[in-house]
Amino acid sequence: MVQFVALSKEKHAELALSDLNDLSAYVSRPTLPVYGAEISRLALHYPLAFIHQEQGYGIHLLCSLSSELPNAWITPEGKWLGNYIPAIIRQSPFTIVLNDEGKRIVCVDQDNSRLGDQGSSLFEAGEPTEFLSGMIKLLEQLYLNGVGTQKAIDLIASYELIVPWPLIVRHGEGQEMPIKGVFRIDEAKLNQLEDDQWLALRRAGAIPLIYGQLLSIGHLAKLLQILQHKTDLLANNAVAAENLNAFFGEDDDSALNFDDI
To answer: Domain for residue 247, yes or no?
Structure first.
């Protein structure tokens, strides 16, 4: 389990962050939490679902539908399939947490493999480098967006629009395994909302989350196809990896940009 500690110029003065070249640490992750600001881009290529958590529902990118199958979007070489990597990966090994006084604190997973003496330095002469300052600014933006995203999801849930998503994975001949704990938007209930409820959803920024999740449902078949054929397609040859990349079109980087991470 990841243990975050407060980022300190005394403790972490000599650390640098290497490039994001290996995502093998995420191979066993069946879902990845996403920020509301990413929905419009992720929904174009990946299936999104609501997952129930301690603090309520969260919106996640579906990466697998079985503990026996690896993350569909990561190749055996540890590369991400597609042109847009979710921000939760890009911001690693940093995060922001609230201390007992409610103050936002930048924290770091100091055991993360990207940290070492190679890459972009975090501090210089006891002060944050330009790289770290940019990272901290981005972390603040992500934190605030995450807070807004959770409020929007809580409102969606209060209108009982989040319902179980009946998914079934088929293994071999005649073997079916129902997937539990995955939720989607109930479009029928959505269309029955009162005008004041629609207005409340719009003011909360919930509309993109709702329609983004509905739009993304069409990519479930892509996820299943990759999971079913991934081993054969990626068996020791780069051509197979290129074939997998053909599932994705070109992304527009003019939207909210996480590329500076």
So the answer is: no
C-alpha distances (whole Å) from 100 to each of 21, 97, 103 are 35, 10, 7
Q: Record the pTM.
A: 0.86
Q: Would you state the structure tokens that stand for residue 234, as one six-digit string? A: 């990626």
Residue range 161-166: mean pLDDT, rounded:
96
Asked whether 180 and 70 are in contact (CB, 8 A), the reply is no
Question: Does residue 166 fall inside a structural domain?
Answer: yes
Instruction: State pLDDT tens for residues 168-223.
Output: 776 666 667 778 899 999 999 999 999 999 999 999 999 999 999 999 999 999 99
Q: Is residue 258 part of a domain?
A: no
- Write out the E strands in the chain: 5-6, 16-17, 31-33, 48-53, 56-62, 94-98, 104-108, 115-116, 120-121, 123-124, 127-128, 162-164, 167-171, 175-179, 182-185
Give bridge partners of residue 178 from the DSSP assignment.
168
Residue 243, domain member (yes or no): no
Identify the residue whose tokens are 């709702």.
210
